[in-house]
């Protein structure tokens, strides 16, 4: 399960955060990432 979580996080960072940085809405993506981390990490 930890490995799957890591794969999902890597994919999110690579695609979503990179795209958000290019489009100028990085703050929204960072908040989404924080919410995802809250779901996966106790």
Tell me about this structure:
With 42 residues, the chain is an all-alpha fold. It has helices at 2-23, 26-40. The radius of gyration is 11 Å and the shape is flat.
Task: Please sum up the structure shown.
This protein has 42 residues and is mostly helical. It has helices at 2-23, 26-40.
Task: Give the SSE map.
Layout (H helix, E strand, L loop, with lengths): L1 H22 L2 H15 L2
Order of helices and strands: HH
Strand % is under 5%
| Major sheet summary line | none
Number of helices: 2
In which range does the helix fraction lie? over 70%
End-to-end Cα distance, whole Å, is: 13 Å
Principal-axes geometry comes out as: flat
How many separate domains make up the residues?
1
Low-confidence runs: none
List the quaternary state of the chains: single chain
């Amino acid at each position: 399960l930890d490995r799957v979580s890591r794969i999902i996080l890597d994919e999110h960072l690579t695609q979503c955060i990179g795209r958000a940085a290019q489009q100028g809405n990085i703050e929204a993506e960072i908040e989404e990432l924080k919410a995802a981390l809250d779901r996966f990490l106790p």
